[in-house]
């Protein structure tokens, strides 16, 4: 009986510990090691977030805004998924930056449970494409548990580089 209790406890605790370890590994991998004009990058040069004392960087905040303007309709609030599309706050843990860009820009078709599902291409939608880094950064912060659900209460000021890039990309 005692052995059965121990085995049951391990069966419950081990997956939780593995999940926590993966989240910690992901957080370390997503850590900002370099900043250029207010934008943060990880050790591999991928865009990432910086959250200090409850204040999110501009790009994470803007990613929240842009995600909720165009993506949440299918993928649910805060990247938590819906009956229509997967939880991006989870899948972002398992895909790299280049794959994310490719899927959003080019779209994707697949069969799930015998049913075809389609992610439309957003490569020509400037309201999405011009802010792909920001959306990725926000979802990355959500994926590793660094950003809670809901609108970030405090944000850094918008960097001049973000204003210049936005004008250039949007054609203004």
Automatic annotation (TrEMBL):
Residues 1-23 form the signal peptide. Keywords: Heme, Iron, Metal-binding, Signal. InterPro entries: C-typ_cyt_methanol_metab-rel (IPR022411), Cyt_c-like_dom (IPR009056), Cyt_c-like_dom_sf (IPR036909). One of its GO terms (molecular function) is heme binding. Residues 40-170 form the Cytochrome c domain. It comes from the Bacteria. PROSITE patterns: CYTC. NCBIfam families: 4cys_cytochr (TIGR03874). This is Cytochrome C.
């Amino acid at each position: 009986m005692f052995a059965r209790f121990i085995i049951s406890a391990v069966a419950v605790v081990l997956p939780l510990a593995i999940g926590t370890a993966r989240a910690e590994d992901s957080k370390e991998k997503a850590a900002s090691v370099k900043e250029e004009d207010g934008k943060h990058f990880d050790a591999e040069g991928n865009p990432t977030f910086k959250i200090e004392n409850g204040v999110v960087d501009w790009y994470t905040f803007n990613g929240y805004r842009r995600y909720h303007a165009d993506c949440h309709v299918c993928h649910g609030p805060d990247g938590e998924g819906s009956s229509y599309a997967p939880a991006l706050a989870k899948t972002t843990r398992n895909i790299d930056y280049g794959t994310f860009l490719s899927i959003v820009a080019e779209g994707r078709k697949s069969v799930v449970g015998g049913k075809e599902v389609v992610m439309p291409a957003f490569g020509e939608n400037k309201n999405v494409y011009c802010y792909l880094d920001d959306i990725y950064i926000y979802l990355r912060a959500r994926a590793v548990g660094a950003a809670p659900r809901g609108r970030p209460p405090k944000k850094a000021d918008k960097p001049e580089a973000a204003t210049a890039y936005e004008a250039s990309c949007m054609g203004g």
